[in-house]
Structure formats: structure tokens, C-alpha cells
Amino acid sequence: MGLEHVLNARSVAVVGASKVPTKRGYQTIRTLLDERYEGAIYPVNPKEKSIMGLKCYTAVSQIPGEVDVALIATPAKTVPAVLEDCGKKGVKGAIILATGFGETGAKGKALEGEVLNMAGRHNIRLIGPNTSGMINLKDNLNLVGLKNSPKGDIALLTQSGNMALTLITEAKLQSRKGFTYYVGVGNEADIRFHEYLEFFRQDPDTHAILMYVEGMREGRKFLQQAYKTTETKPIILLKSGRSSTGKQSAGSHTGALAGMSEVAKGAFERAGIIVIENSDELFPAAESLSSLPPIKNNQIAILADGGGHATIAADTLTDLGVQIPELEEKTQSKLRAILPGGASVRNPIDVAGGTDDNPAVFADCANIILSDPNVGGLLIVGLFGGYGIRFAESLALMEEDAAHQMGKMVKRRKKAIIVHSLYNSEKPHSLDLLRYYGVPVYGSLDIACKCIGVLAQYGRYLKRYHAKSDFILDWEAKAKPEGRQIIDNVYRQGRTALLEAEAKQLLRFHGAAVTSDAMAATAEKAAEAAEAMGGKVVLKIASPDILHKSDAKGVQLNLSGRDQVKKAFREIIKNAKAYKANARIEGVLISPMVDKGIEVIIGTKIDDQFGPVIMYGLGGVMVEILKDVSFRVLPISRRSAQHMIAETKSHPILDGVRGDKPYDKKALINLLLVCSEIIEAYPQIQEMDLNPVIVHHEGLSIVDARILLKPAPEKEKAGTAA
């Protein structure tokens, strides 16, 4: 069932209705009445006859009319019985306010499971539990009890009632913007983040989606839906839990895995989500993105009435990845014609006193600047809005005229203007006029810069939208019959770890360049294999029970000659048995020594929130020391592989330093794509680790490969037992 009957409910039962003003069962009914909700309101409390003039019912099942949604404001332990009663009535949705579910531990998880099963049996969709409620501001359906919330075009999803209160209050006091819906997502026991996104994507009145997230249960589905949504509507997200203490706190609120990992941040940005790290930037970013067109060319002009603010803004925007282009000569010429001789007209533009006796010149300058094809948006910084306060009251009318002109300019030119004003807190009428036209105004220069920066970020994303991943894994479609045979054989033998030879063989089947190795069960066979390879060789223990060969002294390098190889074989077998007496030993793997090059690592794992992810970085022992790595949620495209390499601090090494020739980045990109394909082809793979991979001037060598499988499915286990 969709969310229409829940979020756009035409009738509400308030279970736990009360006459006590401090109770949610009172506040909700009071607010519904005060805000003139037009649907039916049914208080439910077996101890009361009526509440606020409304007839009270002993149970939801006793209500004569249809009930779309039930607000359950009773203790956690009562919820299963309430839902069963709702099921008898055919209620379509329920909002569970109580805490004491999955966020509290094993006992709470069991109760949450019982609630979910009960709701499933009766086809009841659930918001929460552990939620502050839900508001549909379009229909005055206020199931939170928070009065006078501003209406607008932003949908708000949070896992914190306090964050919701903060954002709604900020909108009310500092903006003309407001909300279409607010949903306290809570524990996501039933309705998940991605379902809300789908609903808001289709809602014609919602122009942006603002989110505060602590943890989510189905991260990959969220990414898939976000990818569809951000093509037409921006998503602005603050995810808490970057620190270990923050993760613990977030986990205690939601019961879901929490934390802003590098994996999460990168995945969100790839889906087009605007990730915000500072809470005071969250609503301003949403306000700007819902009000203004995205900046399509990543180029911004700065118009200032003082050099200091202009310089700081230029530095801040540059740090945000935004370009400050030089204006065309004809643009500069037009600016010179209306500004004093000391004005700077290159960009940033400093009016140098040219607005002191007529602040309407700001609008003239803005019109000239926005006509420049190099300029995608304009940031105005300094005193605008305060000339009538700072200098003479008569100037206030000129500022208001300029505000009218600039507001109309945004719609006419379809280019963004954002204003920073030192006098924002004074609330002059000119700044309110700008907001009326959808031009955001901020007292903080940093926030103003961030807001025009996110407009540029969203514009950059939209420009290359179709080159992005949709995060859909085409499971098994790319599998090779030979690859399936390797994995089936590993399961049949009761193993979950591929031998190195098997891992390299699987890579070879998918087109990766791997060394021509040989397996030997005796010292003599090892010597023969080494001799056939020519040159120096490496010997490594082959055992499904010894994954870290070096720890078992199971690796010997730079071997040549039959006697040296035989001796190394015997020592490796002896060391392996001493390391783990009951280890299954398949023999010793003989590989040619590879030429020197740059050591890198490629690894994959299953992330708890997003599923399969891939990691790339500087390899060998350095990966643990420097941690110079980048991540992507799989699958990846060629462009993503290129970006993964470019994001590491060590990537210039691959271009060659101090006269060294460049290394083969094309081969490295191809290997990243092969790894993505393998994970997509074989969903049985839990983890893959290629470390080190030696990148040469031409080609590369996979020196070591380790692949771990998920536990065998029951049918493979049964086959092994038989």
C-alpha cells in the first residue's frame, strides 16, 4: 500500500486521547481543531465520554466512520493490542509515538518485531515507532501538536523531534519559506526513507526535501530512489554520527546502524544529495535550493561594497569548488560607466562607494553582471538593506526599489541571487522584499557562501546526471560458467575461502591480467614449475585455513635454482604446520617475481547500510599506515573508477615524479571495473582483497588475491553433508 492514505489522511483516530494539556493525546486534538483540519477526528479513550466537544470511543473498532490513520499515544506494551483493534476496523496507517522498541535493545527489538508482524497481517503502514509524529501542512493535518508551523514547498524528514523543532522555528523566524510535510521517521520499522522520497518526488507541491538522518535500514534502496528524485528535486541531508560517541548516541535513538562513514558521504553525493555537515547550514541550503535555479556553469560573481567581505567570499567559494570568472570586457565597461573610478570591476566587483548615496545602483550592477554569459549566479555581500539605517532613512526607499528589481531579475534571467547583509538582524523591509521574491538573505557570510555553493554543486550534478550510477546491481547477469564452477566447488568442499590460485583464476575469467602461476604438492614439482617459468620466483603456502600467509611465514621471495626452491618449499610446509597444526594444506603456489612498480590495494566488502562497496588506495603495508583510500558503492562506471584514483592524496605518484615515466592508470581503471563486475556477477562473495597490485609503466600485476564467500546456502551445506 502507498503512503497516500497515511500522509494525506481524511480521518484520524487519536488513541490515548486526553483532557490533560501536557499529554500528546490532548495537544494533537487541540491543534487539529485550532488549525481547522477538515477531516474527521475520533478521540479514543475508554474512560472518557467526550473530549473538547468530540465524542470519545472505547476502541478504534467502535468508530462508526472510516479511519485512515491512527495516532497511537499509549505506552509501548499496549501497541500490539491497539494495532489488532485497528486491523478489525480496516485502518490504513498508524503513527506510533512510544519509545521502548528496537532502539532499547533485545527486548525492545522483540516488541518491535511483534508490532511489525501485527501491522503486516492487517495491511497497516507504520510511521515510527519512536517518532514525534507527522504534519501535512497542506491539509492542516497536524499530528505533532506543534502550532503555527510555516507552510511552504519543503518536505522535512528527520529522526529527531528536536531537530524538527529547530528547523521549523528557524523557518518561522528567519525566512518566508515553510513546509509541505513533516515526518518524524523514527525507527523505520515499516515505512522506510526511500518510500518517503518516492512520495515526495511525486508530490507537485514539494520542491525540495530536507533530511536529518541518524541511521537507515535500507541504504541501497534509498540511494536508488534518491538518484531518481534528485533529477528533478534537490535533497539536502545532514547525517549525524561521524564520531564514535555520535554513533552510539544516534544508535540509541534509532536502533539502526548509524554513522556518517566515508562510504555514506560519497554514496549520497553520487546520488545527487547535498550533504551538509553543519546544522546551521541545513535550513538555509534547503531554502536556497527550493527557491532558486541551480547554477549550471559553476561560475559565480561577487558584488560587494567593501573589499574585506569580497575577499573572504572569494576564498570561501574557491574552497567550495566554485569558480570566480573574470567578467567579459563589455560587462566591465558597462560597470565602469555607472561606478566611481576606484571601483574594481573584474570579479569580485567592489562598488567603492558607488552605492553610498543611491543603493539602487546594486540592482543596476546586478542586471549588468547577470547578463554576462560567464556568470551563472550572483552573491551580494556587505551593507545592502542597511543603507537606510546606517546613513539616511531616505535611502531605505531606494533599497526597496532595488529589492523589487533584483527579485524580478531572478525570474527573468533564471539566474540565482543570494544576499549577505550585515543588517539582516535589523529586519529592514528591503530584505523582506527580497525574501518575498525568493531571494534568500543571510547575516552570516559563511552561510551565504555555502548556499550559493550548494546551488553550484547541484548544478554540477545535474549537468552530468546521466553519467551517474543508478546503484542497481544486475546480480548474476555477468557471471561466467567457469566462475560459477569455482564457487560451487569451494562450497562443495566445505570452504568459504578461495585459494589464491582460484581467486586469480576467477579474475582471469573476467579479463584481469594475472600472473601465470603453478600449484605444486611436492618440492620436486615446485622446482620443475620454477624452472619452467625462468627467472626468479615466489613460493606461497596454499591453504584455505591460512588466509594471512606472511603471518605463518608461508611466503618466500626472490628464489632461483632448483635447490633453493626445494628448500623453500620444505620450510614453507614446516612453518605452516607449526602455525596451524590442523590446517588443510593444498600445496605451494609458485609465481614469477614481478617487476617493481607502485603498490596499490583494491578491496571490496559488504557495507551494513549500502551493500557491496569497493575501496582503492596505496597498497602494501602503507595502506594501514597512511589510510590513503577512497570508496564507492558498487557498481561503478569508468568515470567513477577515474575519480576513485584521483581522490587519493597519492595519485600524483602514478603520473611519475622526478623524471619517472607515468604508470598505467588505464590498466588500473580496467581492474577496478573488473572487480565491480565480479562482485555483481557472484552475490556469494563477501569480501575480495587484492593487495598488493603492482602498477607498472605498462600493465599491472596482481601479486596476491583473497576472496571470501558468504556462508554456504542450505542446499550446498546439505550436499557437503551427504
Task: Describe the overall structure.
- The structure is a single chain.
- The protein is α/β, with parallel strands linked by helices.
- The chain folds into 5 domains: 1-131, NAD(P)-binding Rossmann-like Domain (Rossmann fold, 3-Layer(aba) Sandwich), CATH 3.40.50.720; 149-291, Succinyl-CoA synthetase domains (Rossmann fold); 293-467, 3-Layer(aba) Sandwich (Rossmann fold); 476-513 and 595-722, ATP-grasp fold, B domain (D-amino Acid Aminotransferase, Chain A, domain 1, 2-Layer Sandwich), CATH 3.30.470.20; 516-593, 2-Layer Sandwich (Dna Ligase, domain 1).
- 39% of the residues lie in helices and 20% in strands.
- The protein has a 7-stranded mixed beta sheet, sandwiched between helices.
- It is flat and about 100 Å long.
- The model is unreliable at 243-260 and 718-722 (pLDDT under 50).
Task: List the total number of helices.
Answer: 25
Biggest β-sheet strands, sense, barrel: 7 strands, mixed
The H-level CATH homologous superfamily of the largest domain, spelled out, is Succinyl-CoA synthetase domains
Strand content: 15-25%
Poorly predicted sequence stretches spanning 5 or more consecutive residues: 243-260, 718-722
Which structural class fits the helix and strand makeup?
Answer: alpha/beta
Report the CATH topology name of the largest domain: Rossmann fold
